[in-house]
Amino acid sequence: MNSNKLQGSTSNEVEAMNSNEFYQQHHFPEDDEIDLAELWYAIWSGKLLIIAISGLFAISSIIYAINQPNIYKATTLLAPASEQGGAGGLAKMAGQFGGLASLAGINLGGGGTDKTGLALEVLKSRVFLESFINKHQLLVPLMAAKSWDVNSNTLIINDEIYNETTNKWLREVKAPKKPEPSSWEAYKAFKEILTITSDKETGMITLAIEHYSPEIATQWLLWLVSDINEAMRDQDKAEAQRSIDYLTTKLQETQLADMQTVFYQLIEQQTKTIMLAEVSLEYVLKTIDPANAPEEKAKPKRALIVVLGTMLGGILSVLIVLIRYFTKKGAATKLSNTKLVANNKEADSMQPTQSSQVLGK
Questions:
Q1: What pTM value is reported for the model?
Q2: 142, 206, 222, 273: most buried, per Cβ within 10 A?
C-alpha cells in the first residue's frame, strides 16, 4: 500500500511539473494591446525632455519669425472695358455683308473675340513679362532685394548677390546659370509675386503684386495695367491697319458698286477702330480701384509661425519619449524572456533526476 501511495504521489508531482512547464512555455508575459494609462505614464515620465525640446523649437521659431522681412501686397481692381471697333466691329460688319464679301472671295470671319480673356493670357505670357521687366529695369529689385527700410523708404539690396557700386552681379551659381539672372529666371520670379484673380459672376479682375517695398509693388502694378492696355491697343491698331490695306487693295480690284459699298464701310469701321484705340488709355482693362501703397504687411504671419513651430516641437518630443520608453521596455521584456527560457531549460534538465530519485525511494 505504501508503494502504491508513493507511486501515485510521484505521478501527481510529475504531472504538475509538466503542466507548469507547458503553462510557462505558452504564457505571454505582456499584452499587445495599448494601455492608455501606460501611455500617459510614459509621456509623464519624459515631461522634462518634452518641455526642453518644445521650448527649443519655440525659441527657434521666434528667432526665425523675427528675422523674416515684411512682404507687402498691393492690389488693384479692374473691369473689362467696353468693346468698341476692332475685331468686334469687323465681325459685326462681316455678319451684315458677309454674303456680298464672299462673292469676291473674301473671308471676313465670324464671331467676336474675348479681349479681356486674351489680355489676361497675354499678361501672364513669358514674352510680355520679359519685355515688361526689361522695359522698366526691374531685374535688380526683383532678384537682388532682401528687405525694405521703413524709415528711409529705400530698398535694401543683398550685397552678396549684387554690388550697387560697380553694378555687377555677384551671386554664386552653377553652370549653365550665370551670375546675372537670365530672362527666364526673372520671368519665373515675377510670376511668383504676381496674382491674377477673375470673378466669373461679376467679371471683375484683381491684380496683386507682393514685394518687400509697398511703393515698388504699387508702381509695378500701375505699370502693368498701363502696359497691357498699350500692348492690346497697339495689336488692334496693327490688325486694323492691315485690314484697311487689304480692303483698299480689294476695292481697287472690283468694279461692282455693291462690293465697293461693302469695302468702303469696312474701311470706315477699321478707321474708327484705329481712332478709338488712339484716344482710349484704358483700352481693354478699366481701373475701378487703383493700386495704393499698403501700410500693413501681408506676410509673414509671425504668430502662426511660432505656434506651428512649437506644436511641431511638442509632437516630435512626444514621439521621441514614446520611442525611448517602449524601446527600453522591449529590451527589458526580451531579457526577462531570456531568463525565463534559461530557467525552464534548467528545470527540464533537473526533472528526470528528481523523478528517478523519487521512484528509487
A1: 0.70
A2: 273
